[in-house]
Design goal:
A hairpin with a 2-residue loop joins strand 3 and strand 4. It is built from 6 helices and 11 strands. By secondary structure, it is an alpha+beta fold. It has a 5-stranded antiparallel β-sheet with strand order 3-4-5-8-9. Strands 1-2 form a two-stranded antiparallel sheet. Strands 6-7 form a two-stranded antiparallel ribbon. The longest helix is centred in the first third of the chain and has 22 residues. It has a single domain, classed as Glutamine Phosphoribosylpyrophosphate, subunit 1, domain 1 (4-Layer Sandwich), CATH 3.60.20.10. Helix 5 packs across helix 6.
Amino acid sequence: ATMGNLIASRDIDKVFAADEYSVVGIAGTAGIAGELVRLFQVELEHYEKIEGTTLSLDGKANRLAAMIRGNLGAAMQGLAVVPLFAGVDVRPDHDPATDEEAVETPSASLPGRIFGYDVTGGLYEERGYHAVGSGSLFAKGSLKKIWNQRMGRDDVVSAVVEALYDAADEDSATGGPDMVRGLMPSVFVVTGEGTRRLDDEEVTTVASEVIAQRQEQAL
């Protein structure tokens, strides 16, 4: 997180699990973004408790869009929040309206989807990959060269860490892997089995491989 031309925090989290099957990343005014994410998490949990099933992925994306639109007044004064939302849509095996034992299974999950937003709450579904924030131009440029639909989990993790490394190399407000301080990016994997944050040790291994590869290329 930055404060003008200064680094306000080196270890702030900017990616969060929205619920069991989705994640949200934030860019913009940190305080407002953090509050928006916490409220979003509570609303999704409340819906699940009341309805007995998770909200559809489209429903989650649209709800987040409405919350961003509610911040438009502050955004016009420079306090904007622009998140990135991603997840999988898990369909219930049974209709919860007629079956009290309705459950959700990983085998019923649909392919992952990514949504981008603008400060007015505009919602746009992205294809394959997306990035937000001051370093997003460089991150997307990096992903454009290495991403493809056939990539496995490990390849995707390596690609996003490499993209963040590239963005941090060009943008002073983007924090990449910090090997000196042991600060690693927040990396989440979302599948039909749920949302899981990778351990710092695993991310460190990937980051070390990316940096070693760059060092070899520089020789």
